[in-house]
Amino acid sequence: MSALLDVDQLKTFVAIADTGSFTKAADVVHKTQSAVSMQMKRLEERIGKPIFSRDGRQSKLTEEGERLLDYARRIVKLSAEAVSALADADLAGHVRLGVPDDYADRFLPEILARFSRSNPRAEVSVLCEPSLSLKDRISAGNLDLAIVTHYQDLFSDAQIIRQEQLYWVTSQRSTVHEETPLPLAMAGVTCAWRKAAEERLKEESRPFRVLYASPNSTAINAAVLAGLAVSVCAESSLRPGMRVLGPADGYSALPPIRIALLRSPHGKSPVREALADHIVSSLDNLSESRVAAQ
After folding, report:
1. Which pTM was predicted?
2. Phi, psi torsion values for 194, nearest 5 degrees
3. 119-174 pLDDT, tens per residue?
4. In 10 A of CB 141, how many CB atoms?
5. Cα 58 to Cα 10, 14, 51, distances in angstroms
6. Considering only 3-7, 144-148, 288-292, which range has the smallest mean pLDDT?
7. What DSSP line would sit under the chain, residue for residue?
8. What is the per-residue pLDDT across 53-94, written as a single tens digit (0 to 9) for each?
9. What's the start-to-end Cα distance of the chain, in Å?
10. pLDDT at residue 292 above 70?
11. CA dihedral angle for residue 15, residue 16, residue 19, residue 25, rounded to 10 degrees
12. Domains (range + CATH), the chain
């Protein structure tokens, strides 16, 4: 392969892989279907191998296509980062970000590192509080952005950017999950994760008691890892030493949770929008979720 890969062609290629269709991908990349087909023909000519095979109406990847897809995703993402970094290099100002500590530990290192590299003169202050508290602060104008667990009836103005499975967890060294009533370690009564767990236990008429309650995920995780209680957490919040409980253990599946981005209604700034873009690009896994749902 002597020619360099074209980023626009790779972007279209990723869209086809995500949607499973040339027609759907054309809508995503805002091109005609014939233009999409021509791009893929030229991409195949560049690499010298077929990357698609037809399966009815679906466009499936060949083995070479699967190998190319991982590189394509990384190249497209890196290209977008480079453009953003060069465009935002002169941005300066202060942006206030709110995030529950469950997500702060997992997501903030990458988000803040990428944003700082692109915007060295911008300042970010971070506040960790539960999602409902962050919503109130957004409404009051005390925060510019907030990453929250989505409550469908309360966060109608939020942008959903990620979906994750919710799991029952206990310590790998404990049998506390076999106790009756079941001891739980949970966040406050307004927590979406807690509500999902309690509703499931009530549906199954399973006795339980909240033995440890804290708005701090570190405290909850400590109780779990010490083998004192069962809790629930999202996939990104799983920690070494935790054991996921499933049907074989007597625990039925919990619903997925959605993570969303809230923007302040009290005006916007270029630095706020730049951070919002970094958050969306860092957390977004909805393309994969949509494909899985098809």
Report:
1. 0.67
2. -65, -45
3. 888 999 999 999 999 999 999 999 999 999 987 667 777 888 898 999 999 999 99
4. 12
5. 19, 14, 13
6. 288-292
7. --SPPPHHHHHHHHHHHHHS-HHHHHHHHT--HHHHHHHHHHHHHHHTS--EEEETTEEEE-HHHHHHHHHHHHHHHHHHHHHHHHHHTT--EEEEEE--HHHHHHHHHHHHHHHHHH-TTEEEEEE---HHHHHHHHHHTS-SEEEEE--TTT-TT-EEEEEE-EEEEEETT--GGG-SSEEEEE--TT-HHHHHHHHHHHHTT--EEEEEE-S-HHHHHHHHHTTS-BEEEEGGG--TTEEEE-GGGT-PPPPPEEEEEEE-SS---HHHHHHHHHHHHHH--HHHHHHHH-
8. 876 566 788 999 999 999 999 898 888 777 766 665 567 889
9. 34
10. no
11. 70
12. 7-87 (1.10.10.10), 89-163+258-289 (3.40.190.10), 166-255 (3.40.190.10)
Over range 262-271, report the average pLDDT: 88
The structure tokens listed for 17 are: 């892989």
